[in-house]
Prior knowledge:
Blueprint: E1 2-7, E2 12-19, E3 23-31, H1 33-36, H2 44-66, E4 75-81, H3 85-102, E5 106-110, H4 111-117, E6 134-139, E7 144-151, E8 154-160, H5 166-176, H6 183-191, H7 225-237, H8 245-273, E9 276-280, H9 287-299, E10 303-306, H10 317-330
Parallel strand pairs: 1-4, 4-5, 6-9, 9-10
Antiparallel strand pairs: 1-2, 2-3, 6-7, 7-8
This protein binds 5'-O-[(R)-(carboxyoxy)(hydroxy)phosphoryl]adenosine and zinc ion.
Amino acid sequence: xxxxxxxxxxxxxxxxxxxxxxxxxxxxxxxxxxxxxxxxxxxxxxxxxxxxxxxxxxxxxxxxxxxxxxxxxxxxxxxxxxxxxxxxxxxxxxxxxxxxxxxxxxxxxxxxxxxxxxxxxxxxxxxxxxxxxxxxxxxxxxxxxxxxxxxxxxxxxxxxxxxxxxxxxxxxxxxxxxxxxxxxxxxxxxxxxxxxxxxxxxxxxxxxxxxxxxxxxxxxxxxxxxxxxxxxxxxxxxxxxxxxxxxxxxxxxxxxxxxxxxxxxxxxxxxxxxxxxxxxxxxxxxxxxxxxxxxxxxxxxxxxxxxxxxxxxxxxxxxxxxxxxxxxxxxxxxxxxxxxxxxxxxxxxx
Length: 350
Ligand code: KG4
Ligand code: ZN
């Protein structure tokens, strides 16, 4: 079964063809980073315009590389939430047009569910059907969530950040340290030459949840908004010198350590409850996080599953791959006429 997947939920314009849910025939990602960099973050208006401009060529390239031909596609899959409404709409409109023209089913995909599935594609993949229940940690620019996965398609959110996502914390910290955008890779790089113990930034453990958050376990919740404020205050008290490279390296390493330590402590609890932990999303590319996760899992004899680096940040292979598991539900009743975007779509909601 060949599925063409489209992903336009944020600032990556992506298309991929995946066979039978795991064999990635093509995976094209046009990253808009250069267009958002001058603003220090994603500008929704620019993102949607970039999707409109680039999606046709990205799709054409994905089809050419896959070499399967339009008539050999069995379905079109598209991310319909969560994400930026104006960006999601571009992918959805293209997907509907293609599905109508080719007369094949349209399958709407939840971006968070696709991130979880990113751990199960490519040549070295593990078969999620044979795995049994596990816990997933999604760490990206927009999300930091612990999810109990009973099976593909059956999820329960058990914890999340009560404010900023881990990726957001990296991006805001890098901005304060004038390391540029996106902040995660910049801090990761600068931190390599730094001392992670130089400044003890606050760890974002949450002990009691605010009243507006219900149904989650505090032991799986985190908070990162105090961290950037702590860095801001630190910089006010200790302004950077004119030649700040060494200071910035130490601060980047210390700041990164606070995020990583927080996630590791929570992940360690997760491995007490479930012996399998999958970690996915852009922040899971972080070298320090990967290193400490491996040590933690080893010590606890837990199984750690990491998405391959090229599937950590937003891509369409995870969308097209997951869609194979939804095909049976949607083939008889395509979503062409009914599917809409849902910027706040939660896990297990569609
Ligand atoms: O998964 P993703 O592409 O987008 C969302 O769905 O949000 O993740 C992007 C996030 C950004 O915040 C970026 O700074 C972060 O992932 N990131 C990293 C690293 N590479 C990307 N954070 C820490 N260390 C990295 N090496
Ligand atoms: Zn994402």
